[in-house]
Design brief:
Helix 1 runs antiparallel to helix 8 (238-248). The protein has helices at residues 9-21, 38-50, 61-71, 88-96, 114-120, 140-150, 201-210, 238-248, 251-269, 298-310, 332-335, 345-355, 360-366, 380-400; strands at 54-58, 79-83, 100-104, 125-128, 153-157, 165-166, 169-170, 177-181, 194-198, 276-277, 290-294, 317-318, 369-373. It is α/β, with parallel strands linked by helices. It has 14 helices and 13 strands. A seven-stranded mixed sheet has the order 1-9-8-5-4-2-3, sandwiched between helices. The protein starts with 8 loop residues before the first helix and ends in a 5-residue tail after the last helix. The chain is globular, with a radius of gyration of 22 Å. The protein binds pyridoxal-5'-phosphate.
Length: 405
Amino acid sequence: MPGFEFFGKEEIKEVNDVLETGILMRYGFDGPRKGIWKARELEDAVCQNFGCKHAQLVSSGTAALTTAMCALGIGYGDEVILPSFTFVASFEAVLSVGAIPVFVDVDDTLTLNPDAVRNAVTKKTKCIMPVHMCGSMADMDALQAICKEHHLVLLEDACQSIGGTYKGKKLGTIGDAGTFSFDFVKTITCAEGGVVMTNREDVYIASDGYTDHGHDHKGVDRGADLHPFIGYNFRISELHAAVGLAQIKKLDTFLSIQKKNHAALKCMLSTIPEISFRRIPDETGDSCTFLSWFLPTEEVTRAVVAEMKAKGILAGNFYWYDNNWHYICKWDHLKNSVTLNGLHPDLKAAVMHHASKDFSASDAVMSCCVSTAISLLWTDEQLKTKGEQMLTVIKKILNEQKISI
Ligand SMILES: Cc1ncc(COP(=O)(O)O)c(C=O)c1O
């Protein structure tokens, strides 16, 4: 996810605006900042670009998830349903508010299987958190229906799918709240940063206060702010927001290059009938940061991955099934509930229980899946070479494994 690939004079200019005033903090110092409010400007740009009423910038995508959960009133004893394939930050945020992460299987969309979600709903369920992994989306109609039926909150972890859409709506703006990450490897980057998006004023006001020690931000004198609730410091700096401001202006360009390169690579891989592709609930809404493809069996997939490594072409191809950060298989720290702070024994037991369930349906999907990251910098020639090298490896393995091509 390539914001950093297109980094240049625009980012330098925005950062220099801040450095020239010397006001690196997003709040206060109204006089010396000489009208430079980069965080505010970026929040406005987020609302404009993604079509949400409110945006609260924060210091990371993880902070955005934690903030959104607090603002949505999720906490002690609540269950949050989330997918077995995500980034560790998703469950870290659930634990940070004292709630219980309830993992359920993913399907060939690489996101929440709505049937598995339905089966996991209990009296304690408070929130469903789809994670729009690798640029594309969960089946939002199905998930919204479950939320409506059971009066649940819908929180979208859209950290990996900036610019993706579902039936015309931007991912991250469909649920009660949604989040993006602007870390260094996201579609647009601030170096570190994130945002909570919402159309609910109550969620926005809570997010705004929570991320700045509970300040109510009602007056011009920061020292006189009241604290209607206890908060934290998840503020973004003006320097980080400045970088994001330059990046968001380039988002449409990033997306159109991604889509073009994605389509070209998909066209090449489609020539092998044994390859199938990730199911996308709304094809036109794929942000195309990755091309995710499946091989017929785990054995073939592992052999292809090993051969790509041997041929030096594995870089940029991700076999998530073996990945320490993204798939539940390898989350031993979670399965053993190893935390530095003490957890209530009931929470500890619940975490271990839910992380150690049977995920064979997810395993069946993830063990046959490879995701190829789409670069903005590929020339047509490089893309063609990459595709051809991949085809050679895949055909060789299919042939060796006596699977017809
Ligand atoms: C799905 C998902 N959620 C949350 C995050 C956390 O974002 P950050 O790195 O900005 O804390 C990430 C980052 O990789 C992510 O991929």
